[in-house]
């Protein structure tokens, strides 16, 4: 048996083994965008968890001038919600009120607590009298049980809307908050299905007299994914027709597509299997950036098919494969999960495609050589390219804000703005993370932090706002006792002696756990048994926090993390080009190495500079440089070392790839469109520069 046949058998067995191992332990797909960049250490995990905690819920807003219609529609809408997927967030106000009444003398609002602590009893009395005689005032307890309105002040200080109905600009509003079940939050496909059902309900109940709005991250995700999916499906159809038509026109047969598609499927499959065996889950962006395999697969296949002699292309194929794999493996050293996955996925797939071409393409019938495409491009184009690079670099500005990569529709923006107006919760929300040995310790630290926040007029929500620590309860009781001793006699006209005696009977403190069990929704403030979060609004001075309290602003912290990834990518670029230069120098001599690598370097700089002239450069533009480098080296290597037939192979590979990525640039999802634009421009300029700078001697 020939050695080549033995190698083929061993290769097939090896592929079968990898596929078998993957099928017995299939990998999961990760769709959380943040996990692509934040996967190292407890702080990254905390950031991702906080983002996820507040990104899987949906808010349904009902708007009408008819309050009866509003309430009836809300009730009907909630009856049609899939309760196995969503839990309707409803606070049993009466149950909570009854619980608080049991411990009324342990509870004080922040303002009353400070007044009593400062001994301003007259101010407390004055406020109480004003409230009692105010015709529009109200009390949650009769005067004989709450003569100083302390309990009422506490309930009012909690905020929120007990009735649930808001009035703005002559219209009434009610909100239903839907909390996604854990299984739903972890499954994007199931979430999209449920969001689709909610949108159908929204359309059904919306009419001239009533509007229904949906807000929340899952709704944005649904519209973005649906739009992108439809656009990408059309792009795939158009790209397939274009490639098939070009191949049919060039080879006069569609049979040639079979080996190309086979090697592509094998490359993508083995890339997935290898990555799945190494990592616990594969991020969705890994698949997006690993589309490099499509172009390289077509490139390798066409180069062989146009020569039908492996000896003529083996050196160019090998150099192209080795240089690209070496460059990609540098990403694996970055320490960033996404970059490591891209490196492994693409390298494994690329090696697979290379081996299929080298080992099996000899079995295919030879193809006729045409030598149709031959271009001459004036070197004057270099002047234009250098001018664009110079202008773009002078204007270069980076944007690391992940929100810049997605543009919501006007309707979604209006719905989110309406939700903020109704709830009073602005978009500038951040978190304070409190760590404690137990629940009591956490509450005490929250109360100390709340004191600092209130001193600086910072609005906040926290668990301790609803459940005082036992220490604070005891302190509240002592302050109220002092108030009663000094000022209760002044209420002799309103209170009998028996009622005054009853007021001085104080309950024991309640355990924090009892509060959690009786007040719905407070467990949302707990990250785990040792950490809680305080939600703060418009907080610009985190330096006031003391005692190791962590401050997290999701937009700025995420941007900082993305910036760090971008910096790492930029730092890796120079070593990658140096390694490629050394590899090419060893194979082709250092005198020729720069000719091969310069087109990729200039093309990358030209693409980034072009983006810079019209806007900011983001992380995904930088990541595109790695893909441009992979393709560009193929163009240069085959231009330098290939036969005349390689001209056609390079051109067809380039034009099909640029066409596909150019269509991606037309999509509505900014992340995908920006990636498509940079790749299309970079690959086209890389091809042109290879013609201008590399001449076949």
The radius of gyration computed from the alpha-carbon positions, rounded to a whole number of angstroms, is 33 Å
Overall 3D shape: elongated
Question: How much strand?
Answer: 5-15%
- Major pleated sheet: 5 strands, antiparallel
Between the first and last Cα atoms, what is the distance in angstroms? 41 Å
Residue-averaged pLDDT: 82
- List the uncertain runs: none
Count, helices: 27
Q: Supply the helix-strand structural class.
A: alpha+beta
Q: How much helix, percentage-wise, in residues?
A: 55-70%
Q: How many extended strands?
A: 12
Which characteristics define this entry?
five-stranded antiparallel sheet, 27 helices, elongated, alpha+beta, 697 residues, 63% helix
Q: What this model shows, in words?
A:
With 697 residues, the chain is an alpha+beta fold. The protein has a domain at 3-27 and 221-404 and 557-693. 63% of the residues lie in helices and 8% in strands. The protein is built from 27 helices and twelve strands. It has helices at residues 3-24, 41-53, 67-79, 93-102, 110-117, 121-132, 150-157, 182-185, 188-205, 217-251, 257-278, 284-289, 292-305, 310-331, 337-360, 381-394, 410-423, 439-455, 463-466, 470-487, 497-503, 512-518, 554-588, 590-614, 619-641, 646-664, 670-693; strands spanning 28-30, 58-64, 86-89, 165-168, 171-180, 210-215, 281-283, 429-435, 460-461, 526-528, 531-537, 550-552. Strands 2, 3, 4, 5 and 6 form a five-stranded antiparallel beta sheet that branches. Strands 8, 9, 10, 11 and 12 form a five-stranded antiparallel beta sheet that branches. Strands 1-7 form a two-stranded parallel sheet. The mean pLDDT is 82.
């Amino acid at each position: 048996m020939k050695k080549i046949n033995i190698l083929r058998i061993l290769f097939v067995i090896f592929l079968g083994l990898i596929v078998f191992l993957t099928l017995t332990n299939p990998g999961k797909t990760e769709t959380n965008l943040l996990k692509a960049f934040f996967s190292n250490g407890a702080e990254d995990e905390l950031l991702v968890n906080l983002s996820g905690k507040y990104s899987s819920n949906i808010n349904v807003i009902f708007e009408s001038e008819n309050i009866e219609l509003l309430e009836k529609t809300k009730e009907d809408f909630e009856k049609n919600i899939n309760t196995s997927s969503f839990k309707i967030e409803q606070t049993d106000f009466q149950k909570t009120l009854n619980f608080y009444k049991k411990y009324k003398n342990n509870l004080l609002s922040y303002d009353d607590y400070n007044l009593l602590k400062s001994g301003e009893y007259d101010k407390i009395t004055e406020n109480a009298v004003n409230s009692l005689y105010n015709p529009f005032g109200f009390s949650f307890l009769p005067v004989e049980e709450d003569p100083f309105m302390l309990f009422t002040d506490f309930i009012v200080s909690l905020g929120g809307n007990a009735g649930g109905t808001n009035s703005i600009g002559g219209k009434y509003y009610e909100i239903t908050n839907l909390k996604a079940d854990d299984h739903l939050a972890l499954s994007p496909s199931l979430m999209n299905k449920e969001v689709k059902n909610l949108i159908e309900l929204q359309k059904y109940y919306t009419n001239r007299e009533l509007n229904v709005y949906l807000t929340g991250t899952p709704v944005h995700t649904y519209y973005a994914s649906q739009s992108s999916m439809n656009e990408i499906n059309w792009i795939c159809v158009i790209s397939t027709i274009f490639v098939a038509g070009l191949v049919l026109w060039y080879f006069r047969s569609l049979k040639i597509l079979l080996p190309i598609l086979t090697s592509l499927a094998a490359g993508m499959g083995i890339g997935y299997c290898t990555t799945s065996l190494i990592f616990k889950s594969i991020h969705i962006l890994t698949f997006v950036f690993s589309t490099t395999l499509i172009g390289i697969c077509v490139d390798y296949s066409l180069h062989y098919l146009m020569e039908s002699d492996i000896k003529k292309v083996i050196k160019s194929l090998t150099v192209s494969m080795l240089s690209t794999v070496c460059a990609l493996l540098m990403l694996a050293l970055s320490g960033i999960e996404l970059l490591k996955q891209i490196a492994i996925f693409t390298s494994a797939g690329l090696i697979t495609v290379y081996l299929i071409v080298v080992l099996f393409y000899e079995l295919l019938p030879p193809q006729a050589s045409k030598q149709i495409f031959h271009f001459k491009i004036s070197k004057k184009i270099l002047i234009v390219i250098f001018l664009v690079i110079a202008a773009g670099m002078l204007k270069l500005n980076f944007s690391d804000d992940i929100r810049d990569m997605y543009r919501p529709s006007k309707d979604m923006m209006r719905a989110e703005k309406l939700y903020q107006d109704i709830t009073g919760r602005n978009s500038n929300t951040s978190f304070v993370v409190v760590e404690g040995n137990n629940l009591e310790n956490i509450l005490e630290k929250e109360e100390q932090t709340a004191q600092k926040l209130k001193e600086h007029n910072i609005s906040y929500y926290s668990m301790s706002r609803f459940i005082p620590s036992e220490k604070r309860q005891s302190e509240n009781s002592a302050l109220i006792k002092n108030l009663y001793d000094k000022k209760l006699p002044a209420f002799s006209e309103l209170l009998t002696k028996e009622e005054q005696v009853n007021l001085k009977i104080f309950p024991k403190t309640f355990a924090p756990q009892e509060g959690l069990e009786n007040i719905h929704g407070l467990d949302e403030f707990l990250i785990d048994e040792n950490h809680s979060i305080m939600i703060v609004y418009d907080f610009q001075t985190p330096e006031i926090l003391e005692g190791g309290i962590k401050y997290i602003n999701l937009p700025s912290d995420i941007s900082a993390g993305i910036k760090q990834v971008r910096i790492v990518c930029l730092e890796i670029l120079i070593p990658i080009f140096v390694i490629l230069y050394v590899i090419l120098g060893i194979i082709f001599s250092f005198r020729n190495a720069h000719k091969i690598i310069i087109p990729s370097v200039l093309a990358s700089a030209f693409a980034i500079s072009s983006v810079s002239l019209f806007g900011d450069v983001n992380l995904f533009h930088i990541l595109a440089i790695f893909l441009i480098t992979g393709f560009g080296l193929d163009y240069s290597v085959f231009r330098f070392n290939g036969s005349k037939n390689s001209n056609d192979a390079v051109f067809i590979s380039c034009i099909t790839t640029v066409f596909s990525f150019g269509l991606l640039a037309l999509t509505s999802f900014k992340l995908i469109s920006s990636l498509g634009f940079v790749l299309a421009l970079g690959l086209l300029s890389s091809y042109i520069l290879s013609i201008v700078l590399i001449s076949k001697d």
